[in-house]
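Input sequence (105 aa), recorded before submission:
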Amino acid sequence: MDLERAQQKAAELILDDEGWRDGIEDSLATPLLEWTLAQIDGRLAGAAESGALDEDLPYAVADEARAMLRGVCDTLRGFTQSHAATDAGDSVAGDGAACEPEAQG
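Predicted structure, token format:
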């Protein structure tokens, strides 16, 4: 397999699976995707230079990239949900008391 074909295959595997970006705004998902595709290209280029590029590598690299994307997006979703809950607590408390640490006594 040549490098260009390997890079295209790995990119297609990532682009075909949009589940990783569920609930993530485009302003966050787009740079993550661009960074991931650049990492994939670099990893496959390194393998091609060392003679280790084979038919299975684009699939393995795409699987690793997909797992990384899902992990980052899970973290972002958790962060967003955490802040939404804190913001909701602020609006319920009305004075930001939900964010105040309890007094030590």
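Checked by second reader. The helical segments are 3-16, 26-50, 57-93.
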